[in-house]
Amino acid sequence: MSTPRILLAAAGRALVAVAARALSPPACTACDARLADAGVFCADCARTVRPSRARRAAYPLRGAAGSCVAAGAGLVAYAPFAGALADGIRRFKYEDRPDLARPLGRLLLCAALDAGMNADLLVIPVPLHPRRLAERGYNQAALLAAHVAFGLAASLAPRALCRVRTTAQQAQLSRDLRLQNVAGAFRVREPERVRGRGIALIDDVATTGATLAACRDALLDAGALSVTCLVLASAEGGADDIRSPPPSARRT
Ligand SMILES: [Zn+2]
């Protein structure tokens, strides 16, 4: 089957899964316990999630031209990668549960609003390689990005970034290998949409931040004014790479 057909079939599978779950009663994102209302977690699971009120706005990034960009640029995470949030994200990604984009997207939108993100931003997901997209059936970052863009009334550019080569799965690599693995793996496909814009770059998890940093650098090199990374969960002590200045800032 050709790649577009494979992707179409994958999107069809994801749609059917979402439609089937939409007819089910509300359930906990982490353990499927029945919920009385449309919450995200049951009471037991909710106790294991510790949203950070002081969201991380870690490093004042600089635009490619060297101008200091708006406050809040850096990394914003809803909570540490732990407990029921980690369980929910794993199910969302690896257990064929695209329907979980809805509750998890609500959490991500909370983090975005807390961090002062607004409709001026252009929302861009971290892309998956088409082969991995066909395997999974959906790009979890793209589903989350759609929720955030809708909630902020911001523009969504789901195809602005693309992967120019496949990369080994980051989860299996050491920090140094992760950096090597993703360096130069991303390209801006729509530079005219990105130029001069503040970007909200969306992914599910920041582990070392290597993937986010590679995407951020591609966007800044294409002329983006600023890039704020927005993730559901950040590994404890992780995301070091996103905290370091991008190459364009180091040059200034
Ligand atoms: Zn639960």
UniProtKB/TrEMBL annotation:
Gene3D superfamilies: 3.40.50.2020. Belongs to the ComF/GntX family. Residues 1-29 form the signal peptide. Keywords: Signal. This is Competence protein F. The lineage of its organism: Bacteria, Pseudomonadati, Myxococcota, Polyangia, Polyangiales.
